[in-house]
Amino acid sequence: SLDTAICPSDVIQLGNRFFNADTLSGTVVLIGENQYGCDSIIDVSVQLLPEPSSILDTTICPGESLIIHQQIFNETRLNGTIILNGQSQLGCDSSIQVHVGILEESYSTLDTVLCPGEELHLHNEIFTEANNHGTIRLSGQDIHGCDSVLEVMVNYPSNNLTIPPLYEIEYGDSVQLQPKWQWPFVSYTWNPPDDLSCDSCPFPWASPLETMNYTLIGIDQNGCSYITQTKVAVNHEKIIYIPNVFSPNEDGVNDFFTVFANPFLEIVEELRIFNRWGDKVFHVYNIDANDELQG
Prior knowledge:
Largest sheet: 4 strands, mixed
Order of helices and strands: EEEEEEEEEEEEEEEEEEEEEEEEE
Shape: rod-shaped
Radius of gyration: 53 Å
Strand order of the largest sheet: 16-21-20-18
Strand content: over 45%
Mean pLDDT: 89
Number of strands: 25
Structural class: mainly beta
């Protein structure tokens, strides 16, 4: 008798008989093969050796390939069996069942605010007011070592701050500065603060004695600065007007007489009125200009 073992894919031959995974036992007659020249009979029993099999579950990044024993697995081939010829401990074939999963692509967004004129430099990309959105692919940057995608949106708020370029006043007079905007600011700063009723309010009164240039800086809720400028021109021409006739007849027309002037004239120290014959008919000291009741 013959007891032996073979790999599942092997074939053995004894005499004119073949034994394999489908034929594991049988009788072989060897004609004239014994020591006396007679026939011999062999009872054959074949055992199949175990064929090792393993499972490989793994994942790859989108767009990647995995090479295992010269076989390629990717998004178009996610499963398969690899036969390793004669690689088991007993010299038989072994197999690997391969199952590949594709990791989800990592995706994130960046939505931010910049002030007008500013730029965002991010991973070799530059975002400006003209190019305020885009997609950045970060190679091997997620937790699995795969590429990740960053969607960037940069917002540029606009708040047009304007003011009339010129205000004209007489010497000693004042004017309220009237800037305009789309949305109120969180803070206002006037420079220089000289001769202003306040330097941190939106609508100050300006009363300079000389021509002044004023700059307004508005800061919005995003910390962005907006700037506008104006000039307050002061007229230093001294204008005095004294009527040469009046009619104090209480008819409500030209009943009073006084000295009229622009604000440069602080006080009339003395006013005397004479009639046509040279007689003084009125005399007063230290009166305000433009006040008919004091004339």
